[in-house]
Design brief:
Strand order of the largest sheet: 3-2-1-4-5-6-7
CATH topology: Rossmann fold
Number of strands: 7
Helix content: 40-55%
Strand content: 15-25%
CATH architecture: 3-Layer(aba) Sandwich
Largest sheet: 7 strands, parallel
CATH class: Alpha Beta
Structural class: alpha/beta
Number of helices: 8
């Protein structure tokens, strides 16, 4: 039986790498992002490698859009029994400069989006008696200057993960979280610009602070997600795995 995985925020970066990895693992993949057209490159890469994928455009923080997206995936690929909640945005600023819009938009995409998507997908997982949910947290959950909104959202996802693990475990569904450290993605270009340095300088400086001597790549995170989605991880539930090139707690 070929299972279907739904990956949010999969147009680029970690989401795209995860979609490609899950397709290589044998899953059909729904590639979801805010705009459907932005998913084309990921879908093309999956199909070029021999997999099957569809592009879906949706705002994960919108109740109706989330429900419609999951229903469409079920119709076109089959019931999604794997969900990777990866969609995310940055609106960094120090607390005294942070607007309500900066706060609300980050919380909506990360936390509300994961809640809405999980609530929709769990129906299919419970019906199938099997499922995997992987939530993307971050080392920022431990606290990070200028990211009160993002750190709160990523910390919240860890509590969300542990609670769903308790609730859904009896139905054959495991829920885990991957917390990336410094990963070289386009999202971090915004941070480099805010700091007034080039992206290359930003990466070089970060690598010096990481015990393994390099920054992470999207594939490093995709590999961890792949494990949590596998049969080999059937007894791993409610865990947070820091993938950061060094110890985090």
């Amino acid at each position: 039986m070929t299972r279907t995985a739904l990956v949010t925020g999969a147009a680029r970066g970690i989401g795209a790498a995860t979609a490609l990895r899950l397709a290589a693992d044998g899953f059909q993949v729904a590639v979801l992002d805010l705009r459907e057209e932005d998913c084309a490159a990921t879908v093309d890469a999956v199909t070029a490698a021999g997999g099957r994928a569809v592009a879906v455009g949706a705002d994960v923080g919108d109740t109706d859009a989330a429900a419609a997206a999951v229903a469409r995936v079920a119709d076109e690929l089959g019931a999604p029994t794997v969900l990777v909640n990866n969609a995310g945005i940055l609106r960094d600023n120090l607390l005294f400069k942070m607007s309500e819009a900066d706060w609300d938009s980050v919380i909506s995409v990360h936390l509300r989006g994961a809640f809405l998507m999980s609530r929709e997908v769990q129906k299919h997982q419970v019906a199938a008696g099997w499922g995997r949910i992987v939530n993307l947290s971050s080392t920022s959950a431990l606290g990070n200057r200028g990211q009160a909104n993002y750190a709160t959202a990523k910390s919240g996802l860890q509590g969300f993960t542990k609670t769903l693990a308790i609730e859904l475990g009896r139905f054959g569904v495991t829920v885990n979280s991957v917390a990336p450290g410094f990963i070289a993605t386009d999202m971090l270009r915004q941070t480099a610009e805010r700091l007034g340095i080039t992206f290359e300088q930003f990466l070089e400086g970060a690598a010096k602070e990481i015990p393994v001597g390099r920054v992470g790549q999207p594939a490093d995170i995709a590999n961890a997600v792949s494990f949590f989605c596998s049969e080999a991880a059937s007894f791993v539930n409610g865990q947070v795995l820091y993938v950061a090139g060094g110890p985090k707690a």
